[in-house]
Amino acid sequence: MKRTFFWSFLLILVLALAACGGSAEPTAPAAAAQPGETTAEQPAEATAPPAAETAAQTIIIGFTASQTGNQNVPSTGQVNGLNLWKDTVNEAGGIELADGSKVMVDFVSYDDESNTDRVQELYTRLATEDEANFLISPYSSGLTAAAAVISEQYGKVMITTGAASDDTYQQGLTLVYQAYTPASRYLTGAVDMLESVDPEAKNVAFVYENSKFSTDVVEAARQYAEGKGYNVVLMEGYDPETTDFGPFINKIQDSQPDAIMGGGHFQDGSTFTRQLNEKNVDVGFFALLVAPPEPDFADLGDAAVGVVGPSQWEPQAAFTPDSASAAGLDWYGPLGEEFVQSYEAKFDGAEPSYHAAGGYAAGLILEKAIRDAGSTDPAAVQQALDAMNLQTFFGHIQFDTSAEAHGLQTGHSMVYIQWQKDADGNLVKEVVWPLEGATADTIYPMP
Amino acid sequence: MDFLFTSILDGLMLGFVYGLAAMGLTLIWGVMNVINLSHGPIISLGMFGVYLLFTFLGMNPYIALIFVALFGLLLGIVIYFVAVNRVIDAPHLSTLLATFAVAMIITGLGTAVFTASPRNVDYSLGSVTIGNATIPVTRIVAAVLSVLITAGLYLYLHRTRSGRYIRAVANNRSAAELMGVPSVRILALSFGIGTMLAALAGGLISTLFPFTILAGGTYELKSFVIGVLGGLGNPIGALFGGLILGVLEGIIPTFMPATWVPVLEFGLFVLILLVRPQGLFGAKKS
Amino acid sequence: MNSPQDSSVVGSAPKVSWREALSQNAGAYVGLILPLIIIALLTIWPTVTGKDITRESIFTIMLSIALASSLNILLGYTGYVSFGHVVFFGLGGYVGFYLMAVQGWSLWPAMAMGGLAAGLLAFLLGKAILRLRGGYFALATIGVNEAMRAFINNFEPFGGPVGMTLNFQVYRDYGGAAQALRMTFYILAAITFIVILVSYFVRMSKFGLGLLAIREDEDAAEVMGVVAPSAKTWAYVLSAIFPGILGVLFFFKNGSIEPVPAFRLNFSIEMIVMVMLGGQGTVLGPILGGIGYQSLRGYLLTSPLFKNIQLAVAGVLLLVIVLFVPAGVVGWLRNRFPVLRRILQ
After folding, report:
1. What DSSP string describes A165-210?
2. pLDDT tens-digit readout, C196-239
3. Are strands A330-331 and A427-433 parallel, antiparallel or unpaired?
4. How many domains, chain C?
5. What H or E segment, with its residue span, contains residue C257?
6. B104–C318: do the CB atoms touch at under 8 Å?
7. Do A243 and B210 touch (CB under 8 A)?
8. Which of A233, A303, A326, C334 could make a disulfide contact with A255, Cβ separation 3.0–4.6 Å?
9. Chain-wide mean pLDDT for chain B?
10. Of the candidates A260, A258, A253, A285, which has an alpha carbon nearest to the alpha carbon of residue A200?
11. Interchain proximity B273–C129, CB inside 8 Å
C-alpha cells in the first residue's frame, strides 16, 4: 500500500514541478511550441522606422478563444474567420509597408474557458512573453473588458470583435477599437422595422436574457421604442440557463403584445422560439438577438418561419465597391461572396456566421490600418485607426475618436434577417431591413 | 385566472421530471451519505445518449431511454468502484471531491468530444389543448414516465430482496453487514441506480428542451433544492419536492419578475435546511 | 448539539492540551519559516526576472494561496466544508467595486469595506448555518452562494445583470494602468503575508486548538470546554474577511464586475482542491496547494498536448490525490518523515 502512495505522490510532484517550470520560467515551453511557421523576428523597435530589409518580417497577433465553456460556438466562428484572414494575407505575401517590405502574420492564442479568471494573465502573456504586436479581443463583452485593461497597460492596439456592449468603450480607453455595431444600436432597427410594416402596432413586450449584453441591448431598444410612442407591456428578464419558457410565454399571452423583442444567446433564443411555437402564441412580430442569424437556427423547422433577428453581417449583404463609392467611402478587402466562398472552401462547406465574418473583419481592419500607417508602430497604427472611414464586405467602419467613447464603432450598422420559406418550402434567411439592402419583403404578421 | 391555471399546469408537468432528476441524487445520499457532485454531468450524458441514438441510429427516444438506463447503471457501478468505494468512510470532503473529480473528467471529455454547442432531439408528438393551456405531448409523456419510474423504484425498494438490502444499508450499514448483507455490492448497486435515474432524467429532458454538455449543472442545482424539499435520502419525497419546485417556478413569475425565482428558491432551500433538515416530508432521523 | 448554544462554559481546559500547546510553542516560529520564505520568494521573483508575465502568473498563484489559506482556517481547522466560499469573494468584491466605481472611493477604504461586508455576512450566516453538520453545511453554503448571486443579479444599485465597469481614469490616480497593476501585486503580496500570519497564529493559539478539537469530535470538544458555536463562528468570520478584501483587489485589477464571474461556484471548489492538495489543517499546505494547482492549470491550459482535455486531466489528478494522498503533500510528508514535523506546520 505504502508503495502505491509513494509512487502516486511522486508522479504528482513531478507533474507539479514540470508545471511550475512551465509557467514561471521565462522560456515557457508552451510559448515555444506555438504553431508559428516562422519564428518572430525581434519586433522592430517601437519608435524606429521599419527595417528596410526585404526579408519577410512576421507580426504576431494574440488573442484568447473560448475553446471550452459556454461561449465555445460563437468564439469558434470568430477564430475561424481570423484564421481565414491570416491565410489570405500570408498567401498574398503579407501586408505591404511604406518602404515596400512585407510583413507576414502569425497568431498566438490560448483557451480562456469562457471565463474571466485567467483572461488578464493570458493577455499579459500574449503582450509580453509572446511579444504580440497587436491583440484581438476574446469573444463576449465581459472578457473583452478585462482584456482591454491589459492592452491599455502594455500599449497594444486591440481590435475587438464579438464584444458589443457600449460601456467598455466609455471608460477612457485609447487603444481599443470595436468592429461590431454596439449594443445600443442592436435592436433599435427592429423598432423602426415594426413601425414601417405596421403603423397600427402599439404594444411591445421585451423578454430577454438577464446578462450584460442583452440587458444593454434591450434597455436601449426600450428607450427608443418608448420615445416613438410604443407601450412596453412587458419587460422581463430570464436567467441565462433557462430552458423552460412557460412562465414567460404565459405572461406574454396575458399581456397581448403586438410584438415580442429580446432574446440573448443561441441556446435560449432557439428554445424560446420553439416553445412559443409549441404553445401556438399568436404574435405578429418576433425579433430575437443572436440566435436567428445563426445558420443552425433552421433546425427549428416551421417554428423559425417569420422570426426576425439583427445580424452584424449576412452573406447577402449588398456592400460592394459601387455602394462604397455611392456613399463616398473607400472600399477595402474582399467582396462578400469571395469571403463566403473561401470560408466554405476552408471549413468543409460550413456557412460563415456573422461571428466568423466579424473575426475576419477584425483582421481586415488591422491589416488596413497597418497598410495606411505604413508601419507596425502602435502609435502610427492608432492614428490610422482613428482616421479610418471605409467600407468593407462587413459594412461601414469608422470609430469614435472623442475622449468619452474612443474606439466605439460609429459607422457599422445592423441588418435584420427573417426566416422565410422559398418556393420549394425550404427555409431561407432573407435580409428584410434596412430596405436598401433587403432581399425580400417582410412577412407580417408572422404565421 | 386562466393565466394562473396554465402556469400551474406547466409547473406540474415539469415538476415530475425535476423530481425524477433529483431522485438519483437523494437515493445516493440516503444510502451512503454521499453528495454526488457528478450528478449534473451524468444528466448531461443521459441527454447525449438519447440524442446520439435518436440522431444517428434513428431510434425512438423512448426506446433509447432503455439503453441510456443500462448505460447509467453500469457507469454508476464503475464510478463507485473507481472513485467512491475507497473513500466511503472518509470525511465528507473526500467523497465530495472524488465525485467532483469525476464531474471534471466527464465534462472535460464531453466538451472535447461534443463541444459546448447546443443539441436538440427533434422529436414531436404534437400538442393538446386543455382550456387555454397548450401542452406538448412530449411533456405529458415525460411526466407519466417519471411517475412510472418512481413507482418502479418504490416497488423495487420494497418488494425485492436487493431493494430491501439497499434500504437496510441506508438505515444502518454496520447492522446490515452483521446480518450478512454484502454491503459493498449493495452500495455499488445503489450508486448505479442513482446514476441510472439521473441518466434517465437527462434522457427525458432531452425530448423537451435543447441542451449542451454543460446543461446538467442547472438540474444538479435544482436537484439539491428538490432533495432538501423532499427530504435528503427520501427518493419518493423527491417527486413531491420536484412538484413543489415546478409549481413555484410556474407561479412566482405571475406576480413578480421571474429573475427573482432563484433568489426565492435558494433562500427557501437554506431556510428548510435550517429549520427542517429532514425535508418537508421526511420523518425525523435521529 | 445537546449543549445550549450560548452557554459560556469556560470550564477548565484539560492540562494535557495546555502542555501540548506549550511544547508546540517552544519550537514557536520554526513552522513559520518555510511559508514566509516561499511568499517572500514569490514576491521578489518578478523583480528578479523583470518580466511582467511572471508577475501576472504569480498574481494568480498568490491570489489562490491567500484564498486557500483563508478557507483553510475554517475547512482545515474545524473540518466544516464551506462549498460556497466564493460568496465572500464576490460580495466583498461587489461592495468594494460599488464604492470605487459609483461612490468614487479610493482602493484602500473600499478594500476595508469589502472585507467588512464579507465578515459581517459570515457572522450573520455563521450563527445560523454552522449548526448544520457535514454534508448539510456544505449544501447550505452552496445555497447561500446561489441565492446571493441571484439576488445581486436583481439588485439595481450594483448594476443588476450588467454589473459595473471601472472608468480607466481611476487607474490614472495610481499612476496609470501599468503602475496600478504593479501596485495590486504588492498589495496582494502584503495581504497574503498577513493571511499566512493569521493562519499560523490561529493554529498555534488556544483558540486554534479548540477548532482542531471541533474537527476531531465536536461533541467531545464541547464537553471539554470549547464553546463550539462561537469558536466556529469566529473561524468562519476570519476565513471570510480576507476573501472579501481580495475580491475588491481582484475586480479593481479586472476593471469590471458581473454576477456570474463573481459568484462562480467552481471557484470555491478550486479553493477546496488547493487546500486538499497541499494538506488541510496545515499552514504550509494551502501555499503548496495553491502553487501546485495553479501552475498545473496554467501548464495544462497553454500546453498544446493537453489544452483540449485539460479539465479531464485535472480531474484525473484530483481523483488520484483524493484517493491516494488524502492528507495532501504536507500531511504525507509529515507522516512519512516525522523529523520534518517541526518545520512543516
Report:
1. -SGGGGS--SSEEE-SPPGGGTSHHHHHHHHHH-TT--EEEEEEES
2. 999 999 988 888 888 888 888 888 888 877 777 888 999 999 99
3. unpaired
4. 1
5. strand C256-257
6. yes
7. yes
8. A233
9. 89
10. A258
11. yes
Element (H, E) at C221: helix C218-223
Domain range for C92 is 27-342
Partner B contacted by C326 (CB < 8 A): yes
Identity at A269, one-letter amino acid code: G
Q: How many folded domains does chain B comprise?
A: 1
User: Do the domain assignments include residue C18?
Assistant: no
C260–A167: do the CB atoms touch at under 8 Å? Answer: no
Q: Residue B205 falls within a domain, yes or no?
A: yes
Nearest to B117 among A72, A253, A280 (CB): A72
Going by C-beta distance under 8 Å and a sequence separation of 6 or more, which residues neighbour residue C125? C144, C236
- C107 domain residue, yes or no: yes
ipTM of the complex: 0.86
B243 within domain boundaries: no
CB contact under 8 Å between B134 and A299, yes or no, is: no
Does residue C95 carry a pLDDT above 90?
A: yes
Cβ neighbourhood burial of A348 (10 Å; 0-12, 13-18, 19+):
exposed
Q: What pLDDT band is residue C331 in, cutting at 50, 70 and 90? A: confident
* C-chain residues near B109 (CB < 8 A): 309, 312
Residue B88 lies inside a defined structural domain of this protein = yes
**Spatial distance between the Cα atoms of A115 and C301, rounded to a whole number of angstroms:** 13
The predicted pLDDT at position C277 comes to: 87
The total number of residues shown for chain A amounts to: 447
How many residue pairs from chains A and C have C-beta atoms closer than 8 A?
175
pLDDT, tens digit, 9 for 90 and up, residues A251-285: 898 888 999 999 988 888 988 998 888 888 888 89
Secondary structure in 3-state letters for A118-131: HHHHHHHHHHHHCC
Residues of A in contact with C307 (CB under 8 A): 67, 110-111
CB contact, 8 Å: A29 with chain C?
yes
Find the helix or strand (DSSP H, E) in which A383 lies.
helix A378-387
On whether residue B45 sits in a domain, the answer given is yes
CB pairs under 8 A between A and B: 99
Tell me the chain A residues in contact with residue C49 when contact means C-beta distances shorter than 8 Å. 26
Chains in touch with A (3+ beta-carbon pairs under 8 Å) read B, C
Give me the CATH number covering residue C306: 1.10.3470
Question: Could you give the domains of chain A?
Answer: 35-181+320-398 (3.40.50.2300), 185-311+414-437 (3.40.50.2300)
The answer to whether B104 faces chain C, any CB pair under 8 Å, is yes
Q: CB burial class (10 A; 0-12, 13-18, 19+) of residue B62? A: middle
Q: pLDDT tens, A33-63?
A: 333 333 333 443 334 444 444 456 899 999 9
Domain extent for B135 = 2-220
Residues 6+ apart with CB under 8 A from B40: B103, B216, B217, B218, B219, B220, B221
